[in-house]
Amino acid sequence: MPILRLNAGPDGLSLHGSPAAAIPAIRTAAKGTGPVMVLIHGCKYDPTDTSHSPHTSIFGTEPHHHKVGHVKWLRHLGFCTGDVDEGLAIAFAWPARGTLWRAQRAARVAGRHLADVIALLRLRAPNRPIHVISHSMGSEVIFEALTNLPPNAVQRIIALSGASYASRATAAMQSLAGRSAELFNVTSRENDVFDFMFERLIAPPVRGDWALGNGIVLPNAVNIQLDCPRTLAALTRFGGHIASPRRRMCHWSGYTRPGVLRFYAHVLRAPKVVTLREIQQTLPEAAAPRWSRMFARPRVMLSLPMAEKPAS
Fold it and tell me: Do 152 and 180 contact (CB within 8 A), yes or no?
């Protein structure tokens, strides 16, 4: 099974559940074929804590898990099929429990370790595309990695409800590695409360900055607002048959919504078919403003259930 489980902590990289060294395992994994996809979780997970390990929840391989927010990524992204060309999945875990400030510091340390992983993969397998999909504070991991990598290190990045400031993302996407990458910034007004909390707890790099949920303007980036009906309709052109939102507030709909992970698989596995430029030109320009979903008309929204709060 082409899955490499790595943990990045204060002491460096390690293989999850194995005493073997991580670097030789990365060299061996690089020998395969197909794309490389790095999967990065958000806050409240810790691979050293069996009760909160992402390797047994969102990065697990069992087909079903009934806890809200623990939709398994791997199978939906095209792994575990037995296809020799399905590529390599790197389940990249890091200690993300504790306060938001602590998680952000840990994310940046993990990002420097991720840069080492990607650099080694690029050296050993220069022809294999490397993509990244992250959730929540996982965006801080990949943005930190970009600032420590050379050009053409990463091809595509999908950031789901990114817990990063727009200026932070912009600086990373304008770095040497960032300028040659493409960012798919997946947002939703369902995440407004979480963006607001992030902005109140974490000081912005520059005055007046906003979380990624408010969008980013770059030639190599596109904002995909998943609670916008016009956006969902437009994505069907690219194989995105994604269910409509059911909740006012949800931090995890970027990967729990039926059909959405399969759309990401299409984005990462068929970049020549699903081009950034076409998506930029097809999606509606105007995004719904913050709080527009939270304060939607009661007759439309009040009867719908709220999300249970899982690990992000």
Answer: yes
